[in-house]
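Notes continue from the previous slide.

Worked example: a multi-chain complex. Inputs as given:
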Amino acid sequence: MSSSHSYPHEPTGVETRKLGMWVFLSTEILFFGTLITTFMIFKGSDFPGMKLTDVYDIPFTSISSFILLMSSLTMVLAHNALEANDQEKTRVWLLATAMLGAVFLAGQIYEFTEFYHKGFELTTNIFSSSFYVLTGFHGLHVFIGVVLLLALWGIGQRQKGLTLEGGMNLEFVALYWHFVDIVWIVLFTVVYLI
Amino acid sequence: MTKIIEPSKQSSIFRRPSSETGIWSWITTVDHKRIGIMYGYAAFFFLLIGGLEALILRIQLSQPDNNFLTAAEYNAMFTMHGTTMIFLAIMPISAAFFNYLLPLQIGARDVAFPRLNALSFWIFIFGGAFLYSTFIFGTAGAPEGGYLAEEVGWLGSAPNGGWFGYQPNAGMKYSPGTAMDYWAIGLQILGIASLISAFNFITTIINMRTEGMRFMRMPVFTWMTFAVSFLLAFSLPIIAIALFYVTFDRKFGTTFFLTEGGGDPILWQHLFWLFGHPEVYILILPAFGIVSEVLPTFSRKPLFGYAAIVFAGFGIAFIGFGVWAHHMFASAISPVAQAGFGLSTMVIAVPTGVKIFNWLGTIWGGKLKLNTPMLFSLGFIGMFVIGGLSGVTHSIVPADTQQTDTYYVVAHFHYVLFGGALFGIFSGLYYWFPKVWGKMYNESLGKIHFWLMMIGFNLTFGPMHWLGLQGQVRRTWVYAEETNLQFWNIVVTVGAFIIALSIIVFMINWIFSKRNGEIAPFDPWDARTLEWTIPSPTPVWNFSTAPIVKSLDDFWHTKYSEDEDGRAVRREEADQILLELEEDGLNPSEHIALPNPSYFPIVLASGLPFLGYAVIYKSIPLALIGTVLLLIGAFGWGTEPLEEEIHLDSDE
Amino acid sequence: MSDNHIEHPTPKKYVQIAIVLGILTAIEIALYYTEDIVGVFTDPLLILLAVGKFIIVVGWFMHLRYENKTINRFFVGGMILALILFTIVMVERASANYF
């Protein structure tokens, strides 16, 4: 936030928006913590009907997890390019990140549809409910992330290009995107592998 | 002094709002002071409604076997009373104080994110309106063959599952209709508002402090705001998810909290109280902060043990996360958990006790000035100690099992939240009245208010201890004549009406003094914190030049020095300093850029109730309207710069 | 305003980190298929790997290890709080029927 007056702020030396984003991400931990806890509790309880293990496709999910993981790389490369003020590269990497995110989302939609057709529905049992709400909540985050990335890419098309300052800056979105990625790192293990 | 606002050059969906007076200037404002004032009025409005609901409850209970209300209406009234008082009255009134005072106390021009601040206010307003629209649109049915299977009027068409919505009672089977959906989604929306303001305040305190305002020089009220914001930021997500589950259970047929589908009702209790207990401290810590400002000012002594109070505040906030299950001693939780949470509940009394002794130490030996804010603060200490002590009795699990869901509990938490939080809030309202309006309140009316409220309060909630121990159960709409509970119930009802009377006195005082009160002198209380170094009412730009802070209670030290005996002696030049401060504060020497008003916070916020209705009625068109509003708001927000220059030129 | 810019890693370094992440993921998947051989160690190992990936992304990609302590404390504090609270809830729920 670069304002014209010389009023003092940021005694910590951290940019205010970035600080706000980190505070937000810290609370997101509690959001996902609650969801994961519920999932774990119900996973360990007795419930009738289908389990995730009856329907899932580990190779498929592994690939989509890998795609999301790599989108963090493209994101950080976009950030890096912008720090070097290379607008062209920044836009390319941004678009790549958004695309990888979209592929992940498409994979999730495909996966949900498959599960659904196999009879693993939202209300099948307590386990399927918590599965869909947990992964769906994450999916919503990815979706918002993709929208933000595309918006940023759109802003980058303008003459002035992108900067690391001002409202919707790249660092801001990048932090959010990486967070969505680390949540999936945990979910992939907790939901699918264990 | 003239103000020139340059017209917006940015292309935007709307023309940038530019009026400085009138209703649009308030709707589009991003000024923390105006937002604070609006928070205050809105919260007070809901306080009146919540109070009205309480009076209705008390009329019903004044006679045994009364039929003033039906059972269904009674359920709706106590649920709405609790929900309103907690989420729509006390929390936002605290937010009003945070908004108005926090930037002033740390020497800032505004909060870190002014537009987000406006957004959280409007979300709160829409959330409250959404919740209350249940009286118009909501339906509260009765379970098949249930006791409540009777005609439910509009008064009963509100949420009726209690403010903590225990499952499965609040589920679709036992609470059919849409009323509980309004409750779940309404709280969800209100939670978003509080969460956003929590980020904002945390960031503001960390990053907007003026030069020299180190952490350990911040006023205690600011510290308590900080602690409350942490509590909000870390506890609201938990209830948000739990409310998601409730909504899914009710609307989409899942069984997260319903045993018949393998769900776990106790999990709801865990998740609710994981939020609900920190919530108790969210309600009380602001009052701690206010009292810690008022007591030293009117005792004419520095706060006794500043560091201890600060750390005790954070101790309370931290331990406050570890005591939630003491609300569940009567539920099916393991004995080990009961023992553990009983212990932690005893432990949390320690930092609270530290604070009480610090306040007593502050008053001790001071030259007390017993005006209205001081009376309320002293009343706060007394009442809070009673409430705190009856609270500690709940840490003894076997005793708690007896007291659970009786009027003893009701008495306890009203001593804490009314005798504590609300007394503190009234203390603050009187204390900062001259700051906000530039006028003095009427001292005699203020004292009448205090004494009426003190008497009414104790008549209302004192006897509830005995009623509870005699076995009157909470949340029942009648009691039999043979129980001999009538006498104290009448006393309680009379007390409740005395409180209502005191509130009327308060309102008369407020309206009258705001219009015709004496002009407040600069620094009317001979105070210690930064907000009193600027003219009252506060200029739009807060500080014309950034203050530089050299010590704790810096303002006090510019006015006073110590003699050999350590007594405060007013400096000769003190009056001159005050005059200069007033002069400087009114005439900024440089151009001041302030954030511009914006339409987008209210547009963005208006999308949420539509989304809420969309979930309740499973309506795609409503969902689309909501989403479009959100998108317009977000897009306009993103493309509109925070501030375009406002030039404040002083006439030479 | 934040002039204390610490050197972030180079693109090459980022790619290397991503390769490490990819390898860790491959090990995770391999562990999943070799559960019969690895036995009881599978789950702890999987959790350990997830934590490792988590730390790498947070530390390097999100630059947390280059950031100001304020941010660090906040995020780690939220983490620790969540872990404590939810562990208690899970243990209580799991044990409620046995004690």
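Summary box: Chain C touches chain A through 49 residues (CB under 8 Å). Chain C has a mean pLDDT of 85.
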